[in-house]
Design brief:
Elements lengths: L1 H4 L25 H15 L5 E8 L2 E12 L4 E2 L6 E2 L4 H14 L24 H5 L14 H4 L7 H8 L11 E2 L2 H15 L3 H13 L5 E2 L13 E2 L6 E2 L9 H4 L1 E3 L1 H12 L6 H8 L17 E5 L2 E10 L2 E8 L4 E7 L1 E2 L4 H12 L19 E7 L2 E10 L2 E6 L6 E3 L1 E4 L2 E4 L2 E6 L2 E5 L3 E7 L5
Parallel strand pairs: 7-14
Antiparallel strand pairs: 1-2, 1-13, 2-3, 4-9, 5-23, 6-9, 7-8, 10-11, 11-12, 12-13, 15-16, 15-23, 16-17, 17-18, 19-20, 20-21, 21-22, 22-23
Length: 456
């Protein structure tokens, strides 16, 4: 199913690699360090990435703390110790934590209608602050609106973005679905400013960055000089290219923070050790809720929370022009994996974080059981709104698995792991036939595809 919803191009450009010394290695390369060297070296040499910074921390010890490749290809400048990367949607957990902190101080309630704080025409719909946090509002996401990309290079008042969103149809009624939504977190930033009477960046600096000593974390800028700044790149068929310009007025509380692996570890440890939020607030932050029909989600508030191949997982990825990021915590193993990459391409931070995680954890594959249902009844053509478009999917169920082919694709995606109860697993994705519809739960999206005309 991932092949249907996500595709990166491939290019080749030869560059070099450099490393910073792991503070725990004392000149001796550990197995996880050697493996990291091999996969990052290969990715840099083949220009799948320009550079990266990675930190793996378990039980109070840094197992890996290195940088690879280039902060600037033009200058052949290596990624420095504590290189500062744009972290994209990893920003969302800071926004969510800020909302919960403000709620604990009585400055707002998660059940408040968000229009109590931010004027916006919702055509009479009641949408709670909570629905913004877990992407169940149904509000269109501005990053999926074509007109936004002209706006994205310009500076305008922030309410101009909401006026653009107001002209678009809701994706679904609040609480009926879950589709990842940058507009929701943009609005949450405005709420933080309204109730704190500070700018978003000033509030985070006072509430989180200064108390935790996160000296190299800040709101990203396209004008100020920032020490250790890493530059971003993207793929083209001709080779690695400069990232497209993006005015940081717009990613805002959905994705405009810059940070380092060391600062992110400070944040994650403090968050998961109870130094940021009270136990009740932390539980709210990390407990996924349900849709109106009782369907369980695997996304809480600014964090994905689910069982990843048998391992409890709390984390979030990020993608913004020229940068991909991934932060994850495995509570049972007390394992933190943080990866920052300064290239948008086929091997992002999530790829490397997965590779390193499974060097340290037992990956429990899902057990396939015999198919126990009428396959003809679940075959046909189905369609529904997914992130950024309407997906029309042709599904053919066979004893060997599902063949799923999106309209316009040349090849079908094969999903073979049947776990019973009309449910298949495709990696971490849950694909389920229920009430005549196909449900695709991708953690950051809960999609419902209904039968098209002519499908039984």
């Amino acid at each position: 199913m991932k092949n249907i919803l996500l595709l990166f191009p491939m290019v080749l450009l030869l560059v070099g690699v450099a490393c910073k010394q792991s503070p725990t290695s004392s000149g001796t390369t550990t197995s996880v360090e050697a493996y990291a060297d091999s996969i990052f070296q290969a990715a840099v040499d083949s220009a799948e990435i320009a550079g990266a910074s990675v930190l793996v921390y378990r039980n109070g010890e840094a197992l890996l703390d290195k940088a690879y490749g280039y902060a600037s290809l033009e200058l052949q400048a290596l990624v420095p110790q504590d290189g500062v990367f744009e972290i994209g949607s990893v920003t969302k957990q800071f926004t969510a934590a800020a909302i919960l902190k403000l709620a604990s101080e009585g400055k707002l309630s998660l059940q408040d209608d968000f229009t109590d704080y931010v004027p916006m025409d919702t055509d009479g719909r009641q949408i709670s602050v909570n629905a913004l946090l877990d992407h169940t509002s149904g509000i269109p996401s501005y990053t999926e609106i074509p007109e936004f990309w002209d706006l994205s290079m310009e500076t305008h008042p922030r309410d101009s973005l909401l006026k653009l969103v107001e002209t678009k149809e809701f994706l679904f009624e609040p609480g009926q679905r879950m589709i990842y939504n940058n507009t929701a977190y943009f609005i949450l930033g405005l709420i933080i400013e309204k109730v704190s009477e500070q700018t978003y960046e000033a509030y985070l600096e006072e509430a989180f960055f200064k108390p935790l000593g996160m000296d190299q974390t800040h709101y990203c800028t396209t004008t100020e000089i920032k020490p250790n700044k890493v530059y971003g790149y993207s793929y083209s068929e001709e080779g690695l290219q400069q990232k497209a310009f993006l005015n940081h007025t717009w990613p805002y509380a959905a994705g405009s923070l810059c940070s380092t692996t060391a600062d992110l570890l400070k944040w994650m440890k403090a968050l998961h050790e109870g130094k940021i939020l009270s136990p009740n607030e932390y539980e709210l932050l990390t407990t996924p809720e349900t849709l109106n029909n009782g369907a369980p989600l695997r996304y809480a508030k600014g964090l994905s929370v689910f069982e990843q191949y048998g391992n409890p997982y709390i984390g979030h990825g990020g993608g913004i022009n020229g940068f991909l990021s991934n932060t994850r915590y495995y509570p049972e193993a007390d394992l933190y994996v943080i990866c920052l990459v300064n290239t948008t391409g086929p091997k992002g931070a999530g790829y490397f974080a997965n590779e390193l995680s499974w060097q340290l954890l037992e990956k429990q594959e899902y057990e396939t059981v015999p198919v126990d249902m009428d396959l003809e009844a679940i075959s046909g053509t189905f369609s529904g709104v997914v992130r950024g478009r309407v997906l029309e999917l042709s599904v053919e169920a066979t004893p060997d698995g599902l063949l799923a082919k999106a309209k316009g694709d040349k090849e079908a995606d094969t999903i073979q792991t049947y776990i019973g109860n009309a449910t298949w697993m495709d990696g971490n994705d849950i694909v389920k036939f229920q009430d005549g519809n196909w449900i695709i739960d991708q953690v950051s999206g809960y999609y419902v595809l209904e039968p098209t005309e002519g499908t039984p």
